[in-house]
Specification:
Blueprint (H helix, E strand, L loop, with lengths): L2 E5 L5 H10 L8 H13 L3 E8 L2 E11 L9 E9 L8 H16 L3 E4 L6 H9 L16
Length: 147
């Protein structure tokens, strides 16, 4: 495997959708709607999507968003919104290269930190993030509103 990390292109979007389904369990994904979201995100300077490319095959992706809030004491930051790697590309360095690419973009934008949320049942992902230098520092709460 000779994996490189690069910016996502429109032709990568179907593979990204498959990774969201297979690795992240996004079974409800509407591909045409997702393609429109990708187009909007690609045009937004505060978002980036990068892919791990293994000889022309997309084996992973990461999406990262620029954030700035009044209450964030460390200044502007970025948040990793999603990271997925194909099962057969795990432990190949794809995830590490994607995180490094997201961190490089974040640093170039002037972010002081990178944050992320990870579901409780993704223990393997938690261990991966810790090996990348991330630390657990908060709880995440949500409430589903039925309208």
């Amino acid at each position: 495997m000779s994996i490189t990390a690069r910016s996502a292109a429109p032709e990568d979007y179907p593979a990204i959708c498959e990774l969201m389904r297979d690795d992240l369990g996004v079974s409800y994904l509407d591909i045409p709607a997702a393609m429109k979201r990708f187009e909007r995100i690609a045009a937004d300077p505060d978002w980036r999507v990068f892919v791990a490319d293994d000889g022309g095959r997309v084996v992973g992706f990461i999406s990262v968003e620029w954030r700035e809030h009044l209450h964030h004491r460390d200044g502007p930051y970025t948040e990793i919104m999603a990271l997925a790697v194909a099962n057969d590309a795990r432990r190949s360095g794809a995830g590490s290269k994607l995180v490094a690419k997201a961190e490089e973009w974040s640093h170039q934008r002037g972010a002081t930190t990178v944050t992320l949320h990870s579901r409780l049942n993704r223990e393997g992902a938690h261990l991966f993030y810790e090996t990348q230098g991330y630390e657990k520092c908060a709880y995440f709460f949500r409430k589903v509103l039925i309208l």
